[in-house]
């Protein structure tokens, strides 16, 4: 575990009150394609060893990407681009006030046609085959 002392002057927004808050905020930039795989609790990122040794390996749909020593095993399980691009388009749901965010235009890769296609994202759930 690494610590630093923030003196309250200068600095930047990469400054969090807890490890949990930091990981939740920054996990979205750990993977080049999609979000890190979550552990059985659904709260924390699934950690792995970038060397691929032992029990700390990722499922075949994911690969271990290094996190520069910020995790116990040195990496997190990130979706493989081949896996992401075969996921179905998120189905448009009827908006229930207070249940989801706002609708927005997004893109998804249609593996059948081999093209990126636009769709309307409802702002809730979905999957990694969803690009701005």
Automatic annotation (TrEMBL):
SUPFAM superfamilies: BPTI-like
SMART domains from the UniProt entry: KU (SM00131), WR1 (SM00289)
Record InterPro entries: Cuticle_assoc_divergent, Cys_repeat_1, Kunitz_BPTI, Kunitz_BPTI_sf, Lustrin_cystein
A Pfam entry, by short name: Kunitz_BPTI
CDD domains, sorted: Kunitz-type
Domain BPTI/Kunitz inhibitor: 85-132
Molecular function terms, GO-annotated: serine-type endopeptidase inhibitor activity
Database matches in PANTHER family: BPTI_KUNITZ INHIBITOR DOMAIN-CONTAINING PROTEIN (PTHR46339:SF11), PROTEIN CBG15282-RELATED (PTHR46339)
Record-given protein name: BPTI/Kunitz inhibitor domain-containing protein
Organism: Strongylus vulgaris
